[in-house]
Design a protein that fits this description.
Chain lengths: 220, 257
Amino acid sequence: MDWSMLQQYGPSLLKGFANTIVCWALGTVFGMALGLVIALIQRYAPRWVTWIIQVYIEVIRGTPFLVQLFVLYYGGPLIGLRLDALPAGLLGLTIYGSPYFAEIFRSGFRAVPDGQIEAARAIGMAEGHIVRRILLPLGLVSALPALVNFSIILTKETVILSIITVPELLYQVQRMSAETFRYVEANLVLALFFWGLVETISRVGHRLEARITKHLIERT
Amino acid sequence: MLAASSVEMRKVNKFYGKFQALKDVDLSILPGKVTCLIGPSGSGKSTLLRCINFLEEYDSGEVRIDGQLIGYEAPNKKMSGRKLREMRRSIGMVFQQFNLWPHMTAKENVAEGLIRVRRMSKADAERRAVEALAKVGLADKMANHPSRLSGGQQQRVAIARAIAMEPRLMLFDEPTSALDPELVGEVLSVMRTLAGEGMTMVVVTHEMGFAAHVADQVGFMEKGELVGVDSPDRILHHPQDARIQSFLRTYHERNSF
């Protein structure tokens, strides 16, 4: 193996990695936010609204991210939606992740015992307060492991953004391997970067979990 | 003396699909009086209790608190959420499973409603919360989360949470049924104190001793019907109805050894 090309390509790889992290982080945050909104609407909106949202969830979950991205980036201009590669990629990730996050939040909310919601209703608490003070904090705790898990899955979906020319890590790695013919090394670099990222997210997730469940576990 | 509410139920019916959970229930509760509801499980006691603060939506009939209809503006016209919340403010409820919020300390559990519903400042709410906790004998546990409290302590925090709101009526849904036997006494004694202060209380219970000694009237329910309402002595010691006799016979057999 020959790693000498790293000297030349190091900076562009790091830039690509930074782009990957930005795409992942923003895509995850926006996707989670949209998913949360969807989950709350699903819980409170009238039947016909939830039905429409359910169709959205099924369509997004039922189609590959690659296809969604193509439709958005290359099909978007046909309906006047002209986006640069990076914003298109972010929007794509947000849309792609939202139904999964919505389902995770939904199951988190369902894990909150009805009685604890009833206790809030019984003292006359308004629905908005119940959501903010009871449903969200408790639902998030139950949802956290699954949220972290899906965030990890999303890291690896970011590579698909390379096909719409977002200069993220895979894009840079492919450029390097095409120019140096060092495919094995290039892909090892790709794997190592991702492994580092996933490992970090998973550790942060565990720590977060330990912290917020501290008071929720019965101790005798 | 506290200001206490009256409750008036007229021909209350409740259906779950085809199953009729309440059948034409009539019940009058005078201000400051304690009413215990007894009967076999599944007889509709809890459903009846939950209709009083409209956690359970009755289908027909009337439930009035101090003369005001709860849940409906008129037959078939639901009350607005805001109005319902306003009425619920003065009705405290205690659940079988305590239902404390596990992410808050005992003090925060009690203060939450004061801050969000009564719009008190955090400092005032916490002061009141500590008073309420002291009243149920738990001032020293105010910083504990529910996970660090025994069942009896959790239930007393739940009572503190309800009384801190200064209700005029308290509903208890089998408050001691989820407790280990040795913890039942501490909860009943708090309830007895509350009754002594003149709080209107409706208590669904299997504690016949509490019903016999504290209640002003005892109602017996079976299959969705309020079979009889009378003094504890007349219901528990000299029941006329065969269904009550049979229930009490089973109860005594189970509790004798």
